[in-house]
Amino acid sequence: TGALVLNKEREVIYKSTISKHLLHEFYNRYQKDYDIFIQANMQIYTFLKEDLGSMVRQVITSLDEVEGDIYGLSMNAKTDENARKVCLDIEEHFPELTAHQNKEYIDITEKGCSKGLGILKLKELLHLEEVAGIGDSYNDIPMLETVDHSFTFPTSPESLTSIVDDVVDSVEEALDILMKE
Question: The pTM is what?
Fold first, then answer.
C-alpha cells in the first residue's frame, strides 16, 4: 500500500500510520458487514477465525490486542461494484483515510498514502535511479504512474492497460523487456 517501506534488512525506513482512535471508529462503522484485517506491528490482526490458507494472521478478540503502529486496513467488499461504493463511503466518512480499490478488496491507508508514494520514498531513501512496477488492479494506478517503466496484464482493467508502458502475459515477460533495455 505504500504505508510501510523496508530496506533489505527488513528495517522500517518509512511508515505512514493510522491512529488507534480512527481504527476504533472505522471498525465500529464497518465490522457488522465486513471482515476487517489490520496491518500493524509487522503482522495481520483479524477477528476472523476460519482457515485462510497460507495467510498468516493473529486472531484477536478485542481491538485492544492490536500492538504497535497501524499501517493499514483491508476488507473484502465481495464484489467490484460494492467495493467502489464502500471506497466512496470511507472517503466521505473518514477524510483522514484513503481507500484503494483492489478488485473486490479495499486497502485503507492514511490520507495521501499510496503505492506511488511508497515508490517515491523508496527511490529517495535508497537513492535509486530507476524503478519498474507491475500491477493488476485499481490500487496499483498511483504506483504505475510513478515508476519509470510500468507493466500490467491483458486481464487488467482498461484504466490500467491505457496508462502502462507494456501489457505483458507474465512477470517473466516484463523482466525480459527490462533486461533488454
Answer: 0.84
